[in-house]
Structure formats: structure tokens, C-alpha cells
Design goal:
Elements (H helix, E strand, L loop, with lengths): L8 E5 L4 H12 L3 E6 L7 H12 L9 E5 L11 H10 L2 E4 L11 H19 L6 E5 L11 E2 L12 H19 L3 E7 L1 E3 L14 H21 L2 H5 L3 E2 L5 E8 L8 E3 H14 L4 E5 L7 H12 L1 E7 L1 H4 L6 H9 L4 H4 L4 E2 L2 H9 L9 H13 L7
Bound molecules: NADP nicotinamide-adenine-dinucleotide phosphate.
Length: about 400
């Protein structure tokens, strides 16, 4: 088969998502040709959706010339591509970056999550059987480690228990990709980021889950009870033990069960992208790569940052032994029910080995920024200014 383009051509799935859009834009800005597989949704075609995103990134027209949007769906046979696009995928793609995924943790959505993360991947791999693609980049997650405690190897490991359907299906997807790529002599890179937040220098993000969700919940409570106190006499706030101090600080009595050995492993999206590009470049032989922060952030520290930034009092991390001595108050019940799927991550003791990735990135002077209070402030300012993505 003769290639039409001199540039390296990438197929990127999940280009309308958080990491996929950053990868697509990152590749375009580095002069590559990018085919994005995207769905039409809510009366917008795949191209219209990508256009909106590229505007958000501020990508100039001349930087978009090497982008082609292929309308399709992982869950449809042949990815739902028309004949012309299917042919393009078969004969023009050199490398594929698979970022598309259903990232829901909800057990109720098991069937849908499984369909996208496992069977959708199978559909994608089937398309490659007869294609020019020789390298497959799978964006997975460090949390394929499941309920493992302590050190999690930067390698394929046997895991039997998972916290949710997301972890389980991502684990199964890795195993499927490994088998397929070995059998078809395709190089496989498995990238396992931990929890990704916005750009550490600008705070910009196009997804507000992970780190943001519990904080957004507290911010929602803050707005709700402040309004109740200032506009409606404060009955609801009093029932929940919420009060507004004279200095404007809101007392929100929410304990979060977590000890100092636990924490969230947080990496900014700019670090993920730099790491992804460097690993792809430096490691043509593929492998498994933990793109993680060498230092997790304790929930105690996150609670302290949240209190300081949002002018709150009462939100604090409490050791599990101490926590169970007192029944949960109404606000804690409400908070826990809002963040129920994130519960296990509040008590996360997993440590991700990262020696292979660190050796590659260290050689390129790439390191994970510390999740400091100034970084937190930058990210939360953006979150609040955009009303957690509603005004982006
Ligand atoms: N964000 C994180 O903190 C994080 C951390 C670790 C690992 N990861 C991994 O990184 C990858 C990307 O995650 P993300 O945070 O960018 O998620 P995201 O913003 O939710 O994006 C998911 C993408 O997958 C697409 N998609 C879902 N089902 C599809 C289907 N049937 N056909 C075609 N496209 C489909 C979505 O398209 P629509 O826009 O049409 O829905 C969207 O573009 C995932 O593999 C995730 O496991 C993410």
C-alpha cells in the first residue's frame, strides 16, 4: 500500500474528550497529521464538536489543516465509518492513540461501560487487522491496579478485585490490547495516568471530574446555604449545623474519612501531554508507563486548600478510628452520597511504581509539578470563573 502523506498520520479516538483533545491538539501543533474518530451528539456533527473544541484551545486555522474528523462510534461495527473514511483508516494510519472510554464508575451503567471500554476496543482492533497501523497507544489508568494495596508495578499484573466497573474494564482492555498487539506484531504503549487535573500554569481544563468533583460539591453546599442564610432566614442551614461567621467565612461541618497515609495522586494535563509525547518519542519499543506524581496529596492538605480558597471552615480530614466515634451528621451524609463513587479514592494507599517512566522523563528534564496551593488556586479560579465548565 502506498502512503499518500509524508507526515506521520495518527488516528486519535476520544478527541472530543479531555485527554484525547489535548493529545490531538498536541500532535497537530507538532506538525503531525491527525484523524479524529468522534461521535455526533446533541444535534452537532462530529466536525462541529471538534471545531468548538479547537476554538477553546485557540488553535489557528492554519494549524487545523492537517486534521480530519471521521464521524463514527466505537460501539458500531467497523466503527460506523463510511467507506471512504474506513479506507483512509486502513491505508493511511501509522499510529493510533486510543483515548476514548466510558469513565463512569457507576454500577448501574455497567453494560454501557463494558460495551465501550472492552467491546469498543475490540471493534477498533478489528479495524486494524488489515491496516498500515504499526503502533498502538492505549491510554489506560493507574487504577487498573484495582484493590491492590501498596506498590503497584509498572507492568502487567494479575488483579482480581476492583473498586468499580471502570477499573475492571480498563484492566480487561489492557489485557485484550496486549494479546492482540503481540499476535499481530504491533507495538503497544500503555500509558497509565493517575488523576488528571487542568493545566498547572493556566488552570484551564475541559473536564471537571476527578479532583474537581468533591470540591465542586462543597462549593455547591457553600452557595446553597449562604443563600439560605442571607435570603431565606437560614432554617435549612441551622438544621445542617451551617453558620455564617461575622468575617464572611462559612462554617460547613463536613468530616472526610481519610488518614495521612492516604491521598490522591494528581497530575496536571500539561504534564500528561509532555510525558506522553516524550515516551512515544523515546521508547519506540513500547511498554507500560505510569504517568503519576511521585508525591500524592493527602486529603488533609486538600481540605486545607479548600478551606483557604473558598473561605470555609469545618471541612477536615479525620482519621478512620476517630471518624467512627461519632455518627455522621446530615451534611456528611449528603456529602458522602454525592461523592459515593469517589469514596475508595479518599482512602487510597496505592503507590505507583514509576521508575521506567521517570528514567525516560528525567533524561528530558520533564518532571511532575508539585500540587501546591498556588497551583490549586490557579485551577479553582478557572473552575469558578467558568462555573465548573458551564461557561467555558
Ligand atoms: N481524566 C483523567 O483524570 C484520567 C485519568 C486516568 C486515565 N484516564 C483515561 O484517559 C482516557 C481519556 O479520559 P478523559 O478523561 O479524556 O475522558 P472524557 O473526557 O470522558 O473523554 C472520553 C472520550 O471518549 C469518547 N467516547 C466514549 N464512548 C465512545 C464511543 N462509543 N465511540 C466513540 N467515542 C467514544 C467520548 O466521546 P463523546 O464526547 O462523544 O462522549 C470522549 O471523547 C480514558 O481512557 C481514561 O480511562 C483519564
Amino acid at each position: 500500500m502506498v502512503k499518500k502523506h509524508k507526515q506521520q498520520t495518527f488516528l486519535v479516538t476520544g478527541g472530543t474528550g479531555f485527554l484525547g483533545s489535548h493529545v490531538a491538539v498536541g500532535l497537530l501543533s507538532r506538525g503531525h497529521r491527525v484523524l479524529v474518530l468522534a461521535r455526533e451528539r446533541e444535534n452537532a456533527s462530529a466536525s462541529q464538536r471538534m471545531d468548538r473544541l479547537l476554538n477553546w484551545f485557540g488553535l489557528r486555522k492554519d494549524q487545523r489543516k492537517d486534521l480530519k474528523v471521521l464521524q463514527g462510534d466505537l460501539n458500531r461495527p467497523g466503527l460506523g465509518l463510511n467507506a471512504q473514511d474506513a479506507r483512509m483508516v486502513a491505508v493511511e494510519v501509522d499510529e493510533t492513540v486510543h483515548c476514548a472510554s466510558d469513565t463512569s464508575f457507576s454500577t448501574r451503567r455497567r453494560e454501557q461501560v463494558e460495551r465501550t471500554n472492552v467491546f469498543g476496543l475490540e471493534n477498533l482492533l478489528n479495524v486494524f487487522r488489515e491496516s498500515t497501523c504499526r503502533a498502538f497507544h492505549l491510554v489506560s489508568t493507574a487504577y487498573v491496579a484495582g484493590k491492590r494495596k501498596g506498590l503497584c508495578a509498572e507492568d502487567f499484573e494479575q488483579v482480581r478485585e476492583f473498586h468499580n466497573v471502570y477499573e475492571e474494564t480498563k484492566f480487561r482492555a489492557e489485557a485484550m490490547a496486549a494479546k492482540y498487539c503481540a499476535e499481530n506484531r504491533i507495538t503497544l504503549h500503555v500509558y497509565r495516568p493517575s488523576i488528571v487535573y487542568g493545566d498547572s500554569t493556566t488552570g484551564r481544563t475541559n473536564l471537571f471530574n476527578g479532583l474537581y468533583y468533591p470540591i465542586r460539591t462543597l462549593h455547591f453546599f457553600q452557595k446553597l446555604y449562604t443563600r439560605d442564610i442571607l435570603e431565606n432566614g437560614g432554617k435549612k442551614a441551622r438544621e445542617m449545623g451551617v453558620r455564617l461567621e461575622k468575617d464572611g467565612v462559612l462554617h460547613l461541618p463536613v468530616r472526610i474519612q481519610s488518614s495521612d497515609e492516604c491521598g490522591l495522586n494528581l497530575i496536571p494535563v500539561n504534564y500528561f501531554l509532555e510525558a506522553f509525547m516524550a515516551i512515544r518519542r523515546q521508547c519506540p519499543e513500547g511498554g507500560v508507563f505510569h504517568i503519576v506524581n511521585p508525591r500524592s496529596t493527602t486529603i488533609r492538605r486538600l481540605a486545607e486548600y479548600t478551606r483557604r480558597f473558598f473561605q470555609l471552615e469545618g471541612v477536615r480530614a479525620v482519621d478512620p478510628d476517630e471518624y467512627v466515634k461519632r455518627a455522621r451528621n446530615g451534611l456528611e451524609l449528603l456529602f458522602d452520597s454525592h461523592i459515593r463513587y469517589y469514596g475508595p479514592y479518599m482512602q487510597d494507599r496505592r503507590i505507583f511504581e514509576h521508575s521506567r517512566t521517570s528514567a525516560i522523563l528525567g533524561g528530558q528534564n520533564i518532571s511532575c509539578p508539585e500540587f501546591s496551593y498556588p497551583v490549586f488556586t490557579t485551577c479553582m479560579r478557572y473552575a469558578v470563573e467558568t462555573d465548573w465548565g458551564r461557561l467555558k
